[in-house]
């Protein structure tokens, strides 16, 4: 039998894609049978083996100086954003690439580069011990590229919408269209800014911190708790499914 604390931690990346007039963030709804099924999340997913490949190096803008893990996470963030929402963060337009190709081949034959320098680290969370699937997730914030209409893929994501951070924070923590505790806290952090550029500037100034919640049994039932040093306004919340 596998101990809960030996569940492997998978690398993941997700993107807070933001735009102005009004200030909004893109949220996508996972399909019902997915992990966190029917949850409203930021586009993102697991870092795949191909995201680590050094073959990417000639096709990256802003990859210089990044370590391998950071580079792979940013490639994954770009790939997942394209796969889930049809938004391409590259020096070529989404209309000028062939989505029938694999992601690397699509970029490499396009004459363009992935814009890793457009991604600003926003947060970094590790799933607590005691849950069946664990992720080491890097959150990025990014301006929505001009002229790119977000479209859900209908497979991993079944709907999407642009929401003001204040409205997104009000989504429930359980039931249909739920948001998880980390999503809620990062939406609250986003809502502290007045516009997209202010959110990106704030993220650039924020000290790097890896937030790892712990699961607790309290008099009020199960809770997750994070250290105050993580810099969020809230330090305790409901775990997923409660």
UniProtKB/TrEMBL annotation:
GO molecular function terms listed in the Swiss-Prot or TrEMBL record: hydrolase activity
Domain Nudix hydrolase, chain residue ranges per copy:
8-185
Q: Which InterPro entries match?
A: NUDIX_hydrolase-like_dom_sf, NUDIX_hydrolase_dom, NUDT19
Keyword Flavoprotein in the entry? The reply is no
Q: Which cofactor does it need?
A: Mg(2+); Mn(2+)
Keywords in alphabetical order, please.
Hydrolase, Magnesium, Manganese, Metal-binding
Q: Pfam families from the entry?
A: NUDIX
Record's keyword annotation contains Repressor:
no
User: What name appears for this protein in its UniProt entry?
Assistant: NUDIX hydrolase
Which organism is this entry from? Acidocella aquatica
């Amino acid at each position: 039998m596998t101990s809960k604390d030996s569940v492997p931690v998978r690398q993941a990346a997700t993107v807070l894609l933001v735009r102005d007039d009004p200030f909004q963030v893109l949220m996508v709804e996972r399909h019902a049978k997915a992990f966190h099924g029917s949850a409203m999340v930021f586009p993102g997913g697991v870092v795949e083996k191909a995201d680590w490949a050094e073959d990417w190096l000639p096709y990256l803008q802003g990859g210089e100086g990044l370590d391998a893990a950071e580079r792979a996470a940013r490639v994954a963030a770009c790939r997942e954003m394209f796969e889930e929402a049809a938004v391409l963060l590259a020096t070529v337009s989404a209309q000028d690439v062939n989505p029938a190709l694999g992601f690397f081949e699509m970029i490499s034959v396009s004459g363009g580069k992935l814009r890793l320098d457009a991604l600003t680290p926003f947060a970094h969370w590790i799933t607590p011990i005691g849950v069946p699937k664990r992720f080491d997730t890097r959150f990025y914030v990014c301006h929505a590229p001009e002229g790119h209409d977000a479209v859900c893929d209908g497979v991993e994501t079944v709907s999407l919408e642009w929401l003001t951070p204040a409205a997104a924070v009000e989504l429930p923590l359980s039931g249909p269209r739920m948001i998880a505790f980390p999503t809620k806290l990062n939406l609250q952090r986003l809502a502290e800014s007045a516009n997209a550029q202010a959110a990106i500037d704030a993220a650039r100034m924020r000290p790097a911190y890896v937030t790892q919640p712990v699961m607790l049994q309290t008099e009020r039932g199960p809770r997750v708790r994070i250290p105050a040093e993580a810099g969020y306004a809230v330090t305790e919340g409901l775990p997923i499914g409660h």
